[in-house]
Amino acid sequence: MEAQAKKTVLERSTDFIEQKIAPPLLSLSQVRYLEALQRTFITLMPYMVLGATITLILNLSGLFAEETGLNMLGVAKAIDSVTAPCRPWLLQIVFVTINLLAMVAALLNGYFLGDYYNRKDFNVTAVASAVVAMIAFLCFIDFSQLSAEFDWPVYILGSPSLFGGLLISIFAVEIYRFLIGRKITIKMPEAVPPMIASAFTSMIPVCAVIILCTFIGQGIGEFDFLSMLNQGTAYLVVGGSGPVAQGIGFMLDRLLWFVGLHGSNIVSSVMQPIWATMITDNINAFAAHQKIPYMFTEQWINFYVRCSLFPVALLCTMSKVKRFKVLGKLSLPGTIFNIAEPVMYGLPIVLNPLMFVPWVLGFAVLYIFNAILGILGITPPVVAMTVWTMPAPLASFIGSGFNIVAPIITLMNFVIIFFMFLPFFKVMEKQALIEEQQYEMELERKK
Fold first, then answer.
1. pTM, 2 dp
2. Contact at 8 Å (CB) between 97 and 159?
3. Would you call 414 helix, strand, or coil by DSSP?
4. Which residues, 6+ apart, have CB-to-CB distance to 95 below 8 Å?
5. What is the pLDDT along the chain (447 residues), one digit of tens a residue?
6. Which has fewest Cβ within 10 Å: 217, 242, 279, 409?
7. Is 288 helix (H, G, I), strand (E, B) or coil?
8. Per-position DSSP letters for 44-112, written without gaps between them
């Protein structure tokens, strides 16, 4: 009766998440601005990973020179001699990826937002929206004040202006499509080819957006609108970067996955601008040999907490239940590379009341444990990005700047996850064994 009561509570919790929490979050993730942002950061991901990796390579000698004693062996000097000939073009790669992040994000966000509006009004084109969004962002920069001594690419076009660039791009596209929607355009005869006609259609809206953005950005005395915007959004990043805010996001991720929704995609649609700013700030601080500003980045959660379901797949391979054993053998290689769906839906973990405790509550405890390690400074912060399919111990080692403590903590968390799921898996295995034996006996009777 007690077990039945517990199961009923879990079922009610699942229904509550599925019916009350999930729908508004799903609706939120489908808001046009968040949808455009999500597509923007997915497109940017390869460039951010490349820029972060090159930044790491450029700073390898500094890693070995600081507090390792390896500089005595000439390791740092040897690395410098190898990377020195490549340094100019390596710096160029960092410049066109990380240091131009805000400008490229403004362009992409304008494109995807324009693509959304194009489905409703063919006169609003994605390409025109992208260009007007990027130019509108550049209108807020006083190029007459830039000089070689001022590190303007990083500050103005890089991660500090990321939020500002995204907000300006939304503003520009909204004005652009509003004017087109109100037919405030140059109308061309039907005989004019569509490509030429669309250029004239955009002329008045584009001119209006550029003049308006230039006036706001440059025409109000000494008022620096972009710096004000950057400062304001910096508070938002700091507010969302702490262990509590990140923990709430992570718990929503676990709850949504439990009811069969892709929690990572839903949560990232809201958190991605904050995450992107945090990791790029970490990369820039690492490159400048400064203190790393953020501990609880998306990569920190991925490498240390949401590291892998490999331990669960390993449990399956050790099972006496035939279907669990087959599932384990099939899913084990995938879980090494962070592909969790076979275990999530095959075991299953999704909508399985028995798995609610380790998946939701267990991971909550694991997050708190790792957050404490992070606050104490035991866990190395993440200063580089890796592809999401890289095995977690290797990803944490590279992402932390080759700090050997990082993979040790990741492997320790693997062990914790294994024992976190073990008792619940054993109960599930016992039930499955009884069902399997009954099924085999039934088959024997039929024979």
1. 0.70
2. no
3. helix
4. 153
5. 444 444 556 566 656 656 665 566 556 666 788 788 878 887 887 887 787 778 777 766 555 554 444 444 455 566 666 667 777 888 888 888 877 888 998 999 999 999 999 988 888 889 999 999 999 999 888 776 665 555 555 557 777 788 888 889 999 999 999 998 888 888 777 666 766 777 778 888 889 999 988 888 876 666 677 777 777 766 666 667 788 888 888 988 888 888 766 677 677 767 878 888 888 889 888 888 889 999 999 899 999 998 889 999 999 999 888 888 988 888 888 888 888 878 887 888 887 777 888 898 899 999 999 999 999 999 999 998 887 778 899 999 999 988 999 999 999 999 999 999 988 888 888 888 887 788 777 777 776
6. 242
7. coil
8. HHHHHHHHHHHHHHHTHHHHHHSSSSGGGGTHHHHHHHHHGGGHHHHHHHHHHHTTTHHHHHHHHHHHH
CB atoms closer than 10 angstroms to residue 266: 22
**Structure-token pair, residue 2:** 């007690």
Question: Measured between alpha carbons, how far apart are the two ends of the chain, in Å?
Answer: 37
Q: What's the CA dihedral at 356, 358, 359, 364 to 10 degrees? A: 110
Residue 335 to residue 352: CA distance in whole angstroms: 20
Give the amino acid at 438: Q
Burial category of 357 from C-beta neighbours within 10 Å (exposed 0-12, middle 13-18, buried 19 and up): middle
**Assigned token pair, 198:** 């669309």
The long-range contacts involving 274-277, CB below 8 angstroms and separated by at least 24 positions, are 274/236, 274/237, 274/240, 274/241, 276/41, 276/44, 276/48, 276/101, 276/105, 276/159, 276/162, 277/159, 277/160, 277/162, 277/163, 277/233, 277/237
